[in-house]
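Troubleshooting: if your tokenizer reports a length mismatch, compare your output against this known-good record of 171 residues.
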Amino acid sequence: PTCSTKRIPALTPPLPSRPARHPLCIRPRMTLPNPVHRHGLYHLTRRVIWQLFLLLPDRLAVQVFQYTLGAALLSFKDPKRRLQIHAGVLMSNHLHLVAYDPAAERTNFLNRFHSPLARAINKLRARKGRLFDLASHKDKAPIMDRASALHTIVYTICNPVKAGLVLWPHE
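Known-good structure output:
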């Protein structure tokens, strides 16, 4: 199929004031914004670009992770608006957080957490450019029931054990 706007005289009606495009030539519209829910428990995951092992949990990377997470949480002056972290794991090429969002501040928190974390890890690994994969930043709907919440927290904590990276979840 082509995207030509030429008119064949006997076969097509006159062109409208704005020519229609072939369906394959239409640019996709932007995706809808993520829904914002108050009082939601979320499983937040970010993957490193190209699955590189840039988040290797050495001592310094873990300290950077903890510092940027704490700074992002404390950047909300009102404690009632702060996210509450129930579980968090830093793995070699991705991270998991299970967080309760009492005031629909998830997006602000993620901006305040991911940006400094990416800058610090890039500095630590002596590299420049994007750290996180854009496609990996997909917020899911909030976790609604206790069984799903417990399953998500257990999955997050046991993920390094399941991957064979550590023997016990506290390591």
